[in-house]
Amino acid sequence: MSICPDHNAPSPVFESPWHAQVFAVTVALNEAGRISWSDWAARFSETLRRHGLNRELDGGDDYFMAWLETLESVLAEQETALPEEIHEMRAAWEEAYLKTPHGMPVRL
Amino acid sequence: MGLDTRRCLAQAAAMPHDDHDHPHALLPPDPALRVKALETILTRKGLIDPAALDEIIDTYQNRIGPQNGAKVVAKAWSDPEFKRALLDDATPVLSEMGFYGRQGEHMVVVENTPQTHNMVVCTLCSCYPWPLLGIPPGWYKSDAYRARAVREPRRVLAEFGVELPEGTTVRVWDSTAEVRYLVLPMRPEGTDGLSEEDLAALVTRDSMIGTGLPKVSA
């Protein structure tokens, strides 16, 4: 089992735009004093551990899926963003994408 | 058809295709929509500022990266007093150079010698010296590296193409949210008289994680 044969190949810092976004939201909340970094690391590593029990994580999309899941659960506990709220807002964004003509900026 | 080809085809089929027949904007994947939802909720509650998010992304994408760590290593190779101070207590020395952790973490620099090769991992998640190296590469975050770096560091090093002399001890440092490590690699032979800038060009990201060695001087 090799870790990554082309580890010296240049790679983008973030593979997907949403990886960068969820990272930035978390850093911003930390800097605003809403999430302490040691608590974050503890919660996040717990999620990674749980996910890693079922399959091997490759450090890409699955890593940021675990990141997003952790952030959602921390914000739900703080009652900063409840699951219902996220669900509704997600649906609103989905509808906005489906209603916006191709090539136009998508807005809520 | 080989497995790789099949996988590529499957991926291509799953990927949103960018032709112009779409009546509407391409729907981003589910996690992207969830992140957008979070952003909107938090922005509306006044907890985050979209401009600050852009600034954070720009910083980590464009301004912070291994070139920062390389500068530190090249300076340590050139200036014995700086090196002493760096190994003694890196955090204030690095802060003075403008490299401080946004999360307030403590920095420790560990020096490679002919006797000891240092290697850095975060077994719990992916703690990493962001201000010096930027965002960690995928393999650093993978289960395989996190588990195996501690268990069989020499085999992992071999996979990265690093062969160490028999007598060299490998020391693995496990990062935490509070303490992040940077490896100070050995200065390559034949680099006497090189400027700090030229030296910095020899310092690779992996050599500062300990999974690589500096480039050999041209």
Explained architecture:
The complex is a heterodimer of chains A (108) and B (218). Chain A has 108 residues and is mainly α. Chain A folds into two domains: 17-77, no CATH class; 82-108. Chain A has four helices and no strands. In chain A, helix 1 (17-31) packs parallel to helix 3 and helix 2 crosses helix 3. Chain A starts with 16 loop residues before the first helix and ends in a 9-residue tail after the last helix. Mean pLDDT of chain A is 87; it is low at 1-9. The model of chain B is unreliable at 1-19 (pLDDT under 50). In chain B, strands 1-4 form a two-stranded parallel ribbon. Chain B has a two-stranded parallel ribbon with strand order 2-3. Chain B has a domain at 62-209: Nitrile hydratase alpha /Thiocyanate hydrolase gamma (Nitrile Hydratase, Chain A). The radius of gyration of chain B is 21 Å and the shape is globular. Chain B is mainly α and 218 residues long.
| Count of alpha and pi helical runs of chain A | 4
Query: What is the strand content of chain A?
Result: under 5%
Distinct helical segment count of chain B = 12
Helix content of chain B: 40-55%
CATH superfamily of the domain at 62-209 in chain B: Nitrile hydratase alpha /Thiocyanate hydrolase gamma
Q: Which properties best describe this structure?
A:
heterodimer, A: about 110 residues, mainly alpha, 4 helices, globular, disordered N terminus, B: about 220 residues, Nitrile Hydratase, Chain A, two-stranded parallel ribbon, 12 helices, about 10% strand
Quick synopsis:
Chain A is mainly α. Chain A contains 4 helices and no strands.
Sequence-ordered SSE layout with sheet pairings:
The complex is a heterodimer of chains A (108) and B (218).
Chain A: H1 17-31, H2 37-54, H3 61-77, H4 83-99
Chain B: H1 3-14, H2 30-44, H3 50-63, H4 66-78, H5 80-88, H6 90-96, E1 106-111, E2 116-121, H7 130-133, H8 138-141, H9 143-151, H10 153-159, E3 169-174, E4 179-184, H11 196-200, H12 205-209
Parallel strand pairs in B: 1-4, 2-3
Helix pairs in contact in B: 4-5, 5-6, 9-10
